[in-house]
Amino acid sequence: MRKQTQTLKQIAPLITVILLIVSLLVxxxxxxxxxxxxxxxxxxxxxxxxxxxxxxxxxxxQSTLLNPLDTPHVYTEETCKYLxxxxxxxxxxxxxxxxxxxxxxxxxxxxxxxxxxxxxxxKDLMEQLRAQGFEAIDSKQLQAFVExxxxxxxxxxxxxxxGNQNVEFFEVLYxxxxxxxxxxxVNAWVSDNxxxxxxxxxxxxxxxxGLVDHQAGxxxxxxxxxxxxxKIVIARELQGSLDGFAATFSKTPTMVIxxxxxxxxxxxxxxxxxxxxxxxxxNARGPIMYNWVPLADEVDPARxxxxxEGPISDPVxxxxxxxxxEALNAIDLARIIGKEAKDYALSNKDIEHTYYEIxxxxxxxxxxxx
Length: 370
Prior knowledge:
This protein has 370 residues and is an alpha/beta fold. The chain has two domains: 51 residues, no CATH class; 278 residues, TIM Barrel. Helix 3 crosses helix 12, helix 4 packs parallel to helix 11 and helix 9 packs across helix 10. The chain starts with a helix and ends in a 6-residue tail after the last helix.
């Protein structure tokens, strides 16, 4: 034991010298160091930054086919949710369009009714829709598309018949298209106490059959709602629709077709409080797509009767619709805009997928694949 202690004391100076030499070699970079050179650090940091910096997303699709004052408005604020719904291969493909058409009067006689088209023009319009690849959808399909981009026909149309009609009216004009193509018609039903029991019962059977999808059209045929309408009147029109539907159809409407085209901030707020999900105006702006609704932010001197929807800031409650007499030209408009939108989306697909992978994938999961 004593000899070992003496040996350690003898070699201690030598160990100290060796450690000093090693330290000098490292400081002079004569031995490899674990610290990267400045150039290596710059390269690694640049690569890391490139991986975490998302690309700029493309601007919202625009179309020169729209009136200059009718601009696309978006309504889905969560970018990641929007991109996931947009590019999910199980959902509607980019460029899917919905054209809404309002039928006020379909004239089966010789009298010239206001806002009407004759039966032959109606048939021509329906055949043109079919020939150009459009398929009719109901309110449930439309709501799912608007909210989540659920798959619907790439060219869809919502056929909205305004006002209460008897069974014979729907059977003569719409039933053939329902039987041949499966096309339903949405009816802006007026929950009017003066409506006969025969019409109520007949429309209940049409609802059960699937031919007619009844949705809220107020309770007064001549009422026009606006921000100047008394709060109690707005409530009566909207709540009255809900009450009337419960009594007549045993269902809750989710869509309001604004009575006689009138709406405003207060009516829309009231409809939202009553849990309506969609609303249609009588403004002929253009077709709609997922997260894309053409609206106006100011009065157009060339079309002073069209109420600006932009200030309301609720696009899905102020959706545009074409009157039947303008719908024939609107078919081409919707078809071409859909094609333009699809091409634009595909040209930006890689950018949006890269953005999603960097910003969204951790929280929302990877982008679905086919």
